[in-house]
Structures are given as structure tokens and as C-alpha cells.
Fold this sequence. Notes:
This protein has eight helices and nine strands. With 193 residues, the protein is α/β, with parallel strands linked by helices. Helix 3 (73-83) runs parallel beside helix 4.
Amino acid sequence: MGGAAGIRTEGFEKTKMIKENVSVQVIGLIKSYFDDGYVRITGSFKDVEDLLKTNCDIIAIDGTFRKREELTGPEFISKVKEKYPDVCIMADISTIEDALACIKAGADCISTTLSGYTPETKHKADIHQPDYELLSDLCSLSSVPVFAEGRFNTPDTAAKAIQVGAWAVVVGTAITRPRVITQWYIDAIKNFQ
């Protein structure tokens, strides 16, 4: 109702319900965790098969070089594309190297989702600062659409992402997690005092 062109959602039941009730594109994913505690996005063939049952339009897959089912993200994407050639895959990446390998593996689009959320990029995890450098580099190098995602928490950061060259912007926490947003205000007030 607010004008979003699509919805990115996590979990089989939510993805299925949203897909059945909206007319916009739906990006589905299943979230789990690697052994080191870092988030993993759609990291198994079972996850992919479950999401296919929801009829979501795009499946987001962790495209980092971390191993899942004995495969790196790009290798996993390649295997998914071999098995399901018609599936549209969004590769959630954290670095340029991830992105280029995922494009080569057959990803249909790239998202900056995991910048700041992997061991290699945790130094970029400022909750109020998106990774514009990665976004800019991807927009100039990528042969597929680039989604800006990860800490795009205000309308100004979203507008800047489009100025930088993003094909679209995914807004998460600023819409879905009021408790976290409240904490941002509390922290800002405490820091001022």
C-alpha cells in the first residue's frame, strides 16, 4: 500500500502467505547460521526446494565463499541453476569478489546484503552507514542488476543508493523492526547527553 515494488521475506510460511496475498514481486529466503554464528541465506538444496513451493519470484542465496553443503556460494548457485535453470537467483554478497564469482556462476542479480555481516567485512558494520563504496563498485562492474541492501535505514540513504546506480533498494530493519529503531533513538539521545 505504501508503494513498494516488491517484498523480501524470510521463511517458508511467511513467503508462501505473502506470495498468495500481494501482486508485487516476492524475494524469498530461508535464514540459518554458519558454525561461526554468522548468518547464512538459503544455504541448502532443501531450502531452495522449499522456497520453490512458495512460487516466490526470486530466491536469495548466500553468495559468499563460505562453504555450505561442501560448496562455496558461487558453486552452490551454479548447482542450483543446473538443477533449476528457470529459477531467478539473487546472490547476497559481501565483497566484489563474491559478486563477480556469483555472476559467473549464473546469479540473475546481486545484493549487497552481507557487507558488514561476514567475518571478512565485519569492520563495515556501522548500523547507520551503508557500504556505498561496494555498491558503487558493483554498479560499475556488474552485468546484472544490483540491489542496495544492508543498513539503508532512511529515505536519504535509499535515494543516495539510487544516485550511486542501484537498480533497487531493499529496506529491512527500518520497516520490520520497531524495537531496533526505538533503540537507535535512545542511543542517539544518550550519546547527546
